[in-house]
Amino acid sequence: MDNDIVLKYRGRSATRADIAFINRLISDNPTASRRALSQMLCREWNWVQDNGSLRDMIARGFMLELHRNGHITLPARKQNPSNPFLNRKKPERPVIDQTPVKSDLKNLADLEIVLVKNTSHEPLFNGLIEHYHYLGYCHPVGEQLKYMAFAGNRPVACFSWSSAPLHIGARDRYIDWKKEHRDHNLRYIAYNSRFLILPWFQVPHLASFLLGYMARNLARDWESVYCHPVYYLETFVDTQLFAGTCYKAANWKYLGDTTGRGKHEKRQIKTRSIKAVWGYPLIKNFRRQLTRLPDGTDSSDS
Question: In degrees to the nearest 10, what's the CA dihedral of 176, 178, 184, 188?
């Protein structure tokens, strides 16, 4: 029951019974490290990704939040390693051929689109996004895929896809999501967090062509890596800078605008630029799939 919930962390609730369980877990394993305890909790509560990996970082953050609020007492840190997320070096500027290219799409030489996450091309991807995308590079959180397009041996474009944001009003209304639908099915949406065509390439219709390729191939790659499908794609477009023309040309649907408030902003005032929300369903019955609950029912069954 909601009145038994003591704390919420990233959409997960901790009840008094949960806290008692974690305290027993700690007391039963007095020599275990914080990392070992979080991994034990993942196994006890079946906090695993579809590909079998433990959701260790989620569990560790969850337990740390309980510790900071005085609900549990974690053991002292056995070591204080450098945090790779806080101390991550910015990607270096790549040294690449910047000769201008003006071409029709059909004449762009040997265009190839490849998955580059965990490959030798990933540092190049990171550097290009850092130095040529207006938002720069930010290490994606959660599930993620990175792609590059090459013309011969020259990089042309970069795409990154990651786990979808939790609260997007325009999207939730379009899908007809209630909280329980979103909590169970958010993982079936992929978010286009970065899209870059390098500025020295001037090729009409290239952007919409690449978006079409992503729509045809992303779900297959996502399921291969993370062992679950995606049914829907989404992105944000900063309305002060862009019109979203390439998404419209690729048959994405404009759903509305964000409120301009960050997820932690409690006041009813804008603190960020307004973003247009665009979406693209990968299957015809995407609403049915995205409103399915763990018991197999969906909104059409009620």
Answer: 20
CB 244 within 8 A of CB 237: yes
Do 211 and 281 lie in one domain? The reply is yes
The model carries a pTM of 0.76
Q: Determine the longest span between alpha carbons in the chain, in angstroms.
A: 67
Q: How far is CA 137 from CA 128, 140, 194, in A?
A: 8, 9, 9
Q: 210: helix, coil or strand? A: helix
Give the whole-angstrom CA distance, residue 218 versus residue 191: 11
- Among 68, 89, 110, the domain boundary falls at 68
- Domain membership of residue 39 (yes or no) is yes
Indicate the number of domains in the chain.
2
DSSP assignment of 9-33 equals ETTEEEEHHHHHHHHHHHHH-TT--
| Residue 89 lies inside a defined structural domain of this protein | no
Query: Mean per-residue pLDDT for 197-226?
Result: 95
pLDDT of residue 262: 59
Q: Collapse the DSSP code of 197 into the 3-class scheme (helix H, G, I; strand E, B; otherwise coil) and give the result.
A: strand
